[in-house]
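user: can you give me the structure for this one chain? tokens are fine.
assistant: on it. calling the predictor now.
[tool input]
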Amino acid sequence: MLTVGIELGNPGFAEGTVAHPNGFSVDMGRALARRLGLRERYTAYPFGRLFLPGAKPYDVAFEFVTILPSRKRLVDFSIPYFAARQAVLVSRGTPAPTSLAALRKLQVCGKEATTGLAFIENKLRPDTLVLEYPSAPEALHALSKGICDGFVFDLPALMAAKRAHPSLYGAVAGQFGPTEHYGAVLPKGSALRPRVNAALRSIVGSGIPTQLGRKHFGSQQTVPVLH
């Protein structure tokens, strides 16, 4: 049995319940388990706790985690299996910004402990106070109510949110920043890492992540790049 960590409530990545989850991360966990000759089960684990010390309740976690040197000190990563950039989804009635300078003037929000929030604070540096939320559903709720004008988060998740509830939000206005590579997270020193990497090489080589990305998110190339 392979225990797969997921964070529920992230559009397109992991939604539903632990007993009956669905999304890109769920399908990746299932594909990995099959390559390893195992059955899979899922456990809900908050993204913000992935990098805290201590025992973990999963063998591997698929939580759209960007591979960063600072994070490698705390957990082990698999090889990259998917890539995306940061993007902004705007609220209804908010004109879509056509540049980062225009985005900087909006009331933006982000999710704690993410590269999206880091981009806001270190690169974008908006004119107003940044609103920080512990989860994507809370940030999306604030966006739907007009509490913030734009939610900066992973492009695939924003595309999935807009596709699922087109009347709640404005446009996925643009993508920006460097291309980020996602890796599966394993507890530090995990003996499974070589087998997981071998299985993921086969999965990536078969084009499965690309197929799952189109299924759950759509084409990222349709979203303009903001400079």
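assistant: here you go. DSSP finds eight helices and ten strands in the chain. The chain has two domains: 2-83+181-222, 84-178.
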